[in-house]
Amino acid sequence: MVDVFKAINHSYKPKVLIISGLLGLIILLGFLISKSPLLGILSLLFLIFLLWVLVNFHWALLLIILVLILGQLTRFSLPSGGAIVLNDLLIPLIFIIWLLIKLAKGTLIIYKTSLNLPFIVFIIIALFSLLLNPFNLDFVQILSSAAYLLRFIACFLVFYMVLDESSSTKVWQRFCSLAIWAGLLFAFLGFLQLVFIPSFEFMTKYGWDPHINRLLSTFFDPNFAGGFLVLVCSLVVGRMFFAKDKAEKGLLFYAFIFLVIALVFTFSRSAYLAFLVAFLVIGLLKSWRLLFIGLIGAVVIFFTVPRVQERVLGAISLDITAKMRLESYKQAYEIIKDYPIIGVGYNTLRFVRPQYKQIEDVRQMTAGGFDSSFLTILATTGILGLLAYLWLCWRILKESFLIFWGRRSPPQLRGLSLGIFAGFLGLIAHSQFVNSLLYPHIMLYLWFILGLLFSQVKNDRL
After folding, report:
1. What is the domain extent for residue 140?
2. Residue 461 within any structural domain of the chain
3. Which spans in 305-439 are helix H?
4. Nearest CA to 151 among 258, 262, 51, 68?
5. For the whole model, what pTM was predicted?
6. For residue 62, what is the enclosing H or E element?
7. Interval 370-425: pLDDT, tens
8. What are phi and psi of 360, to 5 degrees?
9. Are residues 227 and 371 in the same domain?
10. Is the domain of 19 the same as that of 160?
11. Using CB atoms within 10 A of its CB, is residue 153 exposed (0-12), middle (13-18) or buried (19+)?
């Protein structure tokens, strides 16, 4: 009888906690409405959102990816010169709800993945670099820099939520499809931008570069847009190789062509290089015929699209963009040689670079980093931080490759791992010319698909 009573009590405990919490929110809502109708309405909308997340948590994770695709459209500038996006607020809220649900049900699991330790080590080093920064930064500047560290942690929280919630095959397949559809939607929005807003000259007063007739999509930058498209292209090709249904293969092929066309119109040399690396890796691992077809396609595009020729040849002759990148590397070296061990503090470059007379306005879009993710990490967290970050990158590459190489892995999982392995290698190449590995939207998307990958690994390595 005691055991039955405990079982009933355990089954009803989560419901009692949830109902009690909702009643408390309703009472608070009534109080707010009596004090301020506007505040009451906003609180009501917030309550509706909470209820929706409680009932449809999987859709809440899908919402994160949808907001990601909106990119800079959800950007809010900060007085300190930085900015936040909607997901910076949405992810912590959804994570808190997820955590409370897990605690109430007693189903919270701390997964031991091979990414945990390198991630934690990097975060600790980044935190110490920020607290021990050699410059007299004020409280607002420290807080602004720490906010970006919290963003980095938030991406890892998404990894954990996806890892936990996509254990069932149905949800996992839904999330995998979402990852591809998100890329297609991003490319579609890019074509709309190219047609209706071909020139970004009017955005220069807000700190953006005046790109003309280039596909920027919602990232407002062709280089970051191109890097993102390369990652999605890799996922599509990986899935296409392991799709059993001919109709699915055909749809994935057309999706790939659509994404490649979008990639071409970014006219981003760093994105072209990333695509070349990813394409080469997939070809070597899976299909030499793909390499041959890709080579022919690249030659055709080069000789039929004059602006592609101009961009590629410009890198060889060191045009103004290439010279600016070399100058960015030089500026990074100036800081690295002064603080090589632990750097100047995670994400403090916006406040440090003016002291080196490298920038005049901290509100510049490029003020917070250099044209290389590795150089940015080295300058801000030193050799220790870079080694920890490289360890994390190595773990991602090792795990994705081993899952692909494991013949006993399910076909869809092998396709996903191949796409991640090739796409991440391409992104690493891309990040040596653009700070793409630390770009929030790309970083979040990467951790989302890594959560999908690790959720299906049921062996000791996870």
Report:
1. 63-455
2. no
3. 306-316, 320-336, 349-352, 373-405, 411-430
4. 68
5. 0.88
6. helix 57-70
7. 989 999 999 999 999 999 999 999 999 999 999 999 867 788 999 999 999 999 99
8. -110, -30
9. yes
10. no
11. middle
Count the neighbouring beta carbons within 10 Å of the beta carbon of residue 19. Answer: 11
Structural tokens at position 432? 């040596």
Q: Which 3 state secondary structure label does DSSP give 274?
A: helix
Q: Nearest Cα to 439, choosing from 63, 72, 158, 180?
A: 72
Please name the amino acid found at residue 175.
Answer: F
Q: Would you state the structure tokens that stand for residue 403, as one six-digit string? A: 């899952």
Going by C-alpha positions, the residue among 336, 388, 343, 387 that lies closest to residue 132 is: 343
Sign of CA dihedral 187, 191, 194, 196: negative
Name the token pair of 26.
């309703």
> Residue 232: which residues within 8 A CB-CB, separation 6 or more?
179, 180, 182, 183, 184, 186, 187, 259, 423
* Residue that is last in its domain, among 16, 37, 55: 55
Whether residue 153 is contained in a domain is answered as yes
Q: Is the same domain home to 49 and 155?
A: no
What pLDDT digit, counting tens, does each position of 151-177 carry? 999 999 999 999 998 878 888 998 999
Query: Is residue 462, in this structure, part of any structural domain at all?
Result: no
* Residue 409, φ and ψ in degrees, nearest 5: -70, 145
Pair (51, 68) in one structural domain: no
Pick the last residue of a domain from 11, 34, 55: 55
Q: Is residue 261 exposed (0-12), middle (13-18) or buried (19+ Cβ within 10 Å)?
A: middle
Query: Residue 211 has which token pair?
Result: 């790109």
Q: Are 441 and 228 in contact (CB under 8 A)?
A: yes
